[in-house]
Design a protein that fits this description.
Blueprint lengths: L2 H12 L5 H13 L22 E8 L2 E8 L2 H14 L4 H6 L4 H4 L2 H4 L2 H22 L1
Antiparallel strand pairs: 1-2
Helix pairs in contact: 1-3, 2-3, 3-7
């Protein structure tokens, strides 16, 4: 499945929900499904800067396949992480760098996230892209 297909799957899923309270609950439920990070992974070096809540993001692999693990101390942010992992984990660095996160506007996140959460989402996307740049060098 391509990055665009993964984004379309998210858009299709969000269309099932009638209002934003249901969509927020879905995000919270997604976040609860994220695997816990080990305490040794929750280091300052793995924190995403620019997020109001704490977000730890770890990358492994190489330019042909990057795998991401992440979690947060905030429920909705954990759900946003789950969406990003669904789209970007297990992809090549080139795929990640060539993609645009169009799902954000398509499902209405840009209008329904608080400014601090929107900044955090942008910071998480930037961090994922930075890992792809490093892997491709």
């Amino acid at each position: 499945m391509s990055i665009d297909s993964a984004q379309q799957d998210i858009v299709d899923t969000f269309e099932f929900f009638d209002d934003w309270m249901d969509r927020y609950q879905y995000l919270i439920d997604l976040g609860k499904q994220l695997p816990e990070l080990a305490p040794e992974d929750m280091l300052a070096d793995n924190l995403v800067s620019g997020c109001q809540s704490q977000v730890w993001l770890l990358a492994s692999g190489d330019k042909s396949k990057l795998c991401f693990r992440a979690n947060s101390d905030a429920a909705i942010v954990s759900g946003l992480i789950a969406l990003l992992l669904q789209i970007y984990s297990n992809r090549s660095a080139t795929e990640i760098l060539d993609s645009k996160p169009w799902f954000v506007d398509k499902i209405g996140l840009s209008e329904h996230l608080s400014p601090t959460r929107a900044n955090g989402l942008a910071s998480m996307l930037t961090t994922i892209k930075q890992h792809a740049v490093l892997a491709s060098q």
